[in-house]
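Re: the request from the purification team.
They wanted to know what the chain is likely to look like in 3D before they choose a buffer screen. I agreed to run a prediction and write the result into the notebook, where they can find it.
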Amino acid sequence: MNSKKGSLMKRFIGWKSVVLSLLIFSFWSVPLSAAQEGSRSCVQSDVFSARPAMREVRLIGYTRSRHVMDIVSEEAGRCSRVAADIGDVVGKDGVFAALDNTYIDLAIDKNRVDQERLKNMIAYRAKEVRRCEKLVERETAAEATLDELRNKLDQSEFELDALKVEEANLKERRTRHLVRVPPGWTVIERRVEPGEWVSVGKCVGKVGDFQTLLVPFSLSPEEFNALGELKGTTELRFADEDENGLTLKASVERISPAFDPQTRKISVDLAVRRGLPHMRGGLRAELILELPDASGTVVVSTSALSERYEEFWLTRPNGEQVRVVLLSHGPQNTSRVRSPEVKAGDTFRLRPGQ
């Protein structure tokens, strides 16, 4: 009996040791797997991609007016006054010059007199028509006489309508004795003086819209693509307008659909609408674009470079080492390197020794 109890106790102790060992193994396996996962994520975070090195391209352009228009007279006459000189901004009424309107005023006065005469005649002939109608009812007058009087009355009314149309025409011509341009535009040229005879269609000056300035550029396809990547954040620098330089926002006004086969460039106009102390043409503007370096230079993390015997190396994720030429160090712990085996987008380890 005692021997049986002893054997049972040995079996119980054996099973207990097995259970304890399983529990200890399960507790140790959890932190071990977590550590393995952490090491894998650490390896992934230690990989970076090489970026293409950028270079600045400075393009120079000069401002000009958005629109230029010839000032042409639609009427003939002697110039009585000029309201704006070269460099002046045309007022809200838009009047640039005025022609003598003496003769057009006399023609309007004559037209009004003719209208009053016809109104009087119409009233008289209308009275005759009414009188003749009564006589025809009494059969004391011929109906043909009534028709003749009615026809004369109608002709007088037609003549009055024609005079009213002529009056509107004369008034319109009178308004065109004022040579007008868009308000707010600036006079570029003045070709007329008071007292000078102005013929129909004669150009008496030029005006331009300097409220918006255009800066034309001729861009290569690479520069044009770089301008499109700015997406509305285009800026122009006017170094001559301020001691420290004046930088203003600009927008693309128009793009020429044509392509110059000789220069292989695209014409683009940038617009500046405000911010300059003097809105005029001939202001020097700089457009700065960033383009990838044509030599194949890339930007890498400085901590990824390893130096041995005055040579610099990068390590790929598979452990392969690539020799590179160090060109310069840049900001934010970056360096510019070049190698025929390294291209933008290639991945390398940040700490090659690990």
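For the purification team: The chain has four domains: 58-66+210-291, 68-100+177-208, 102-175, 295-349.
Please add any questions underneath this entry.
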